[in-house]
Amino acid sequence: MSSRAVQKELVSLLPNLRAFAISLCGDPDRADDLVQETVLKAWKHLDSYKEGTNLRAWLFTILRNTFLSNLRSRRQTEVSLDGEVDHMAHLGVPPAQHSWLGSKDLLKALERLSYDQRAAIILVGAEGFTYEEAATICDCAVGTIKSRVNRARIRLLEILGVADPVELVSDYRDTPAKATAIFS
Q1: Rounded to the nearest 10 degrees, how much is the dihedral formed by the CA atoms of 183, 9, 136, 64?
Q2: DSSP 8-state code for residue 79
Q3: What is the pLDDT of residue 91?
Q4: Coil, strand, or helix at residue 85?
Q5: Mean pLDDT per segment of 10 residues, for the chain of length 184 residues?
Q6: pLDDT value for 79
Q7: Rounded distance, CA 167 to CA 171, Å?
Q8: Dist CA 131 CA 126 (whole Å)
Q9: Distance (Å, rounded) from C-alpha 141 to C-alpha 126?
Q10: How open is the CA angle 62-67-72, to the nearest 5 degrees?
Q11: φ/ψ of residue 79, rounded to 5
Q12: Structural domains in the chain?
């Protein structure tokens, strides 16, 4: 694949990368920074991309790893010089309604999941990766991804107070397909 073809495919994947980034960090501005950093890393290391493999999965892996690195870095900088936690880092404002899910309740419920469960359900349910691809992106076993997706779906139903997933999907019929795919 020529660098022009890779560039074209990379650009076409930007909305998917942004949606995944928003689901991870919950802030559209931070998500944009994360996507930009991901694209820069991908472009810089384009020679390590193996032609014929899944560019989408490769980019999602870079994004996930970048997010985790930034998260570790932020946690380290939250501790002030005298060892006390900087409480300003814990203050927040709810994200603006730029949600790709189209539902404030569902987005809030997703944010309450653990990082591992949220990443798994977004990759499989919303982004359409296979369990195998999601396992590769998350660097874990396929069974682990299946378990995380199952637990995430159950937890989302609990958080949203819904007994029957069919009821939930019908409640979100006006939301994008990605939102309803999470529960399918």
Answers
A1: -80
A2: B
A3: 46
A4: strand
A5: 78 92 88 94 86 89 92 66 47 45 72 92 91 94 95 90 65 51 61
A6: 52
A7: 6
A8: 12
A9: 20
A10: 125
A11: -85, 125
A12: 1-95 (1.10.1740.10), 99-184 (1.10.10.10)
Structural contact between residues 44 and 58, judged by C-beta atoms closer than 8 angstroms: no
Tokens 């939102």 locate to: 179
Residue identified by tokens 């982004």 is 127
Q: Which two tokens stand for residue 75?
A: 């946690």
| Residue 165 tokens, joined | 């997933």
Q: Are the C-beta atoms of residues 118 and 24 closer than 8 Å to each other?
A: yes
CB contact at 8 A, 162 and 172? no
Q: How many whole angstroms separate alpha carbon 174 and alpha carbon 43?
A: 37
pLDDT of residue 118: 93
Confidence (pLDDT) at 37:
95
Closest by CA to 134, choosing from 56, 38, 78, is 56
